[in-house]
Design brief:
Layout lengths: L2 H8 L4 H4 L14 E2 L5 E2 L5 H4 L15 H6 L11 H6 L11 H10 L6 H7 L17 H14 L4 E6 L7 H10 L5 E8 L2 H4 L8 H24 L4 E4 L6 H7 L4 E2 L5 E2 L7 E8 L9 E2 L2 H8 L1 H5 L11 E2 L14 E2 L4 H11 L5 H5 L8 H10 L5 H10 L8 H9 L4
Antiparallel strand pairs: 1-2, 2-9, 3-4, 4-8, 5-8, 6-7, 10-11
Helix pairs in contact: 6-11, 7-11, 13-17, 13-18, 17-18
The protein binds iron/sulfur cluster (2 copies).
């Protein structure tokens, strides 16, 4: 299977294309509690308390995402039909970081990626299709604890829980759930960390192996959790990028804040992870949304916008996306930073790679480093935000990969 097939099968979305919903927290005065260093947990609040929405907010159509537009030549605003041909055509700069060995590793990394849809089919919510007698938890709090414990065992990098919300779903998938008689009450949202060393090679094609491995793991982790819940007698459904808007569900489940580039930023994992969900009829105790200064930091930083090779990340302030061609792939009725999904998607085609440069230049990309911790603190400190971006640049983070970066990945890694 080549990269194109992988992408078609799993509708991989990275960076701005994934981030049709570039949510950002609207820092309304809220009752907050500390949850770890610099992290505020908004107890008793929901998605709607930290994200500004209006009457236009509601289920979005997958047909209008960048992939939806690229798949359908009859879409009123189709993306260039040459996209997949461009993807396959050789380009001079792709000689760097694209060879038989790299491609072999990519194929291995994505081993279960092709099975992702099978996992999802296996665990689609169907009444009476559960694999065991109903196990009764004492209460939603107890159920949440054990489900989260299992998610960590299955190797979720982080896990949060929120209530099922049709506004955060894709239109088409709500209809599918209804056809199946599936009535989810809760959504378990999990982060799957990507390998930072290989991601640093973005936009060389080998960088895609990082996403491929994460997609493979997404299928494994979510499929296993959905299977476990089915054995406990609860109809459950695993889903990757499809079904629900991952960034929105991540915010709702207290896993992080939306960013300028459109992805979720987690207080510990930073920006280099993917999101997978399990929808379930089991009633669970929802987590509270969190904030830790991403709003303030992204307002000033702009590093993703400065480094985006296609100019897809806007520097403009947050706004409600207007109903214009430029914003066809942007979710309406939510105040957010803007990204141009079409520009991003077209660049992927030209570069033979899903790019991800915005994710890797982001100062939050470096999880567990002193700079990351400093950035978290600085983000809430007026006047210091710019220093964190400056220091990030000064230490050479996020530099465009060179032949040396590539050679270091293969030859100079301590094993
Ligand atoms: S850097 Fe730009 S082109 Fe690359 S994934 Fe991010 S938004 Fe898309
Ligand atoms: S690079 Fe800067 S502006 Fe962009 S998402 Fe990261 S912190 Fe926000």
């Amino acid at each position: 299977m080549n990269r194109r097939d992988f992408l078609k099968k799993s509708a991989i979305t990275t960076g701005a294309t994934a981030g049709a919903l570039a949510l950002s927290s609207t820092l309304k005065p809220l009752e907050v509690e500390a949850k770890g260093f610099g992290v505020k947990e908004h107890k008793g609040k929901t998605f709607y308390d930290v994200v500004e929405t209006n009457e236009d907010f509601g289920p979005f159509s997958q047909h209008d995402t960048a992939f939806g537009r690229a798949y359908d030549p009859n879409h009123p605003y189709p993306l260039p039909p040459t996209f997949f041909q461009v993807w396959d055509a050789p380009k001079e700069h792709d000689k760097l970081g694209e060879n038989v060995f790299d491609n072999a590793m990519f194929q291995g990394a994505g081993l279960n990626w092709g099975d992702t849809n099978n996992h999802y089919k296996l665990f689609e919510g169907k009444p009476n299709s559960v694999d065991g007698e109903l196990y009764k938890f004492k209460n939603p709090k107890e159920a949440s604890y054990y489900i989260k414990r299992a998610a960590k065992f299955y190797k979720a990098s982080a896990v949060g829980i929120t209530k099922y919300d049709e506004n955060l779903m894709y239109k088409e998938n709500i209809a599918q759930f209804k056809e199946q008689g599936f009535k989810p009450k809760s959504v378990i949202v999990m982060c799957i960390l990507m390998d930072h060393e290989i991601l640093k090679l973005y936009p060389m094609p080998i960088g895609m192996s990082g996403a491929a491995l994460a997609y493979s793991n997404m299928a494994e982790v979510s499929g296993k959790l959905a299977k476990m819940m089915s054995v406990l007698g609860y109809s459950s459904h695993a889903g990757g990028n499809d079904w629900g808007i991952s960034v929105a569900y991540g915010v709702a489940a207290g896993l992080g804040e939306g960013s300028r580039m459109g992805t979720l930023i987690h207080p510990e994992l930073g920006s280099g992870f993917r999101i997978v969900k399990v929808f379930t009829e089991l009633e669970l105790e929802p987590d509270a949304p969190i904030t830790f200064g991403v709003e303030s930091f992204c307002t000033r930083c702009m590093k993703c916008a400065d480094n985006c090779p296609s100019g897809a990340v806007y520097k403009t302030p947050k706004q409600f996306a207007p109903d214009t061609e430029e914003f066809v792939s942007a979710i309406k009725g939510v105040k957010k930073w803007g990204t141009d999904a079409a520009k991003c998607f077209e660049y992927w085609g030209e570069s033979h790679c899903d790019c991800g440069r915005c994710i890797t230049v982001c100062p939050y990309f470096k999880n567990d480093t002193w700079l990351h911790k400093f950035a978290k603190t600085a983000a809430n400190t007026p006047g210091v935000n710019n220093v964190a971006r400056y220091m990030d640049d000064m230490f050479g983070y996020g530099k465009y990969p060179t032949q040396k970066t590539y050679d270091d990945f293969w030859d100079n890694m301590k094993l």
